[in-house]
Amino acid sequence: MVKWFSRKPGRIEVPRLRSRADASATEKVALAEFAPDILAFLGRAAYVQLMIFENLSRVISTAPTTAAKTAIGKAAELSMAKHRKLVDEITKAGGSPAEVMDTFTNEVDQFDRIARGADWYESLISAYLSAGFFDDFYARLAAGLPTESHTRLVAIFRAESGEKVLAEFLQAAIDENPRLDSRLAMWGRRLMGDMMLLARSALVFPDHTRNTEAQVEPVFTELVASHTRRMDALGLTA
Amino acid sequence: MVKWFSRKPGRIEVPRLRSRADASATEKVALAEFAPDILAFLGRAAYVQLMIFENLSRVISTAPTTAAKTAIGKAAELSMAKHRKLVDEITKAGGSPAEVMDTFTNEVDQFDRIARGADWYESLISAYLSAGFFDDFYARLAAGLPTESHTRLVAIFRAESGEKVLAEFLQAAIDENPRLDSRLAMWGRRLMGDMMLLARSALVFPDHTRNTEAQVEPVFTELVASHTRRMDALGLTA
């Protein structure tokens, strides 16, 4: 077993999402205005969560060590549980889960093909960054939904996703192989663009004026800031 | 979506493992005598469980419908939880999980390469049959272990594994495509042989006399009978 997989866990401070109380009322309103209807929101979020599980399960299958498989398994288990909770919410909201999700499969699968990356490390950092990014985005979007389910939904998105263990394996890999640093930094920047596009496509803009753009901009600025903190936690330049 | 994926669930009676009370004392003793030490037992069982998860996650990634992905996701989540519980038991027994499991990776990975099969249906029936078979075998083996952990271990192996949902998708596929019937029956018979070999290799025989063979035979007869019930549940000839 190579040295960096036997490091003790617990060194890394992964920036957690801010608690609901921290989210400014302005932000909530800004997104609420452009939120899709509840079924479209849930279908997209549930399918994105399934994609995150599939990405994690590929990371497990191709992991270089048994220790990595077991540790990352925790994140896979949590992501599947999250997917299934969102599917239950689709049913509660009166939708047929597969039908509601199928509207978004092409778009999300296309993102997934990019996010897989070229090797284990790129897949791993994609899993780490995208789980954090989409939890963050959907929690903000859910907070502004006018449905009775919004408190439950925010709790689902803000629940533990196992990103700490992913960050630990990434950090260990970067420490061991300094050339990985710049490659993963570049990969993270590229992924950021694709995540932003997928996030924006969830919003319903009545018209594309500079005014509406200006309204959602603060939210996207916050998403970028959180992404930067996740990159910083690994010592990578965002 | 093809018709057979929208069938209502709940038609299939999957034979459950017998409760502990049913297992005859003779069987327990028969296996206990040939049981490996606790760490070897746990390492092998934990890694087999990881393989079952990886097989299920491949089944999810290649599933023909989103409904199948979500439904089979439940089984994947349960199998990862089971793997992680077994890993915890390795730690409790004083072992280093990855080290203990790594002794068995070659042998189990070799089985896995066979069990994947040639397409989605073969992977799916492998997941269904092997989860049932190995839960059954390890529960019997654990029942005879002389350690304080044996009650906990039997409970882990006898817990829900999601095989009902796997059986439902298989049954629907067979109903829809009658030619699948004979192919999957043949596949199940082949897999049975490989599962028996992997199971037997867990036992420690002091010598290979006809006497020791005769002692474990009743247990393997029972394993075959349970396998036959799982095949019967799908209308397949074992």
Question: Can you describe this structure in just a few lines?
Answer:
Chain A is an all-alpha fold and 238 residues long.
Explained architecture:
The structure is a homodimer of 238-residue chains. The first copy, chain A, is mainly alpha-helical. In chain A, 71% of the residues lie in helices and 0% in strands. The first copy, chain A, is globular, with a radius of gyration of 18 Å. Residues 1-10 of chain A have low confidence and may be disordered. At the A-B interface, α2, α3 and α4 of A face α2, α3 and α4 of B.
What's the alpha carbon Rg of chain A, rounded to whole Å?
18 Å
CATH architecture assignment of chain A: Up-down Bundle
Fraction of helical residues of chain A: over 70%
Report the oligomer.
Answer: homodimer
Shape descriptor of chain A: globular
Q: What order do the helices and strands of chain A follow?
A: HHHHHHHHHH
Find the count of extended strands of chain A (DSSP E, 2+ residues).
0
The two chains with the largest interface, and their residue counts, are: A-B, 28 and 28 residues
> Which CATH class of chain A applies here?
Mainly Alpha
The overall average pLDDT of chain A, rounded, is 86
Largest sheet of chain A: none
| CATH topology category name of chain A | Ferritin
Could you state the CATH homologous superfamily of chain A?
Ferritin, core subunit, four-helix bundle
* Distance separating the two termini of chain A: 31 Å
Secondary-structure class of chain A = mainly alpha
Strand content of chain A: under 5%
Number of alpha- plus pi-helical segments of chain A: 10
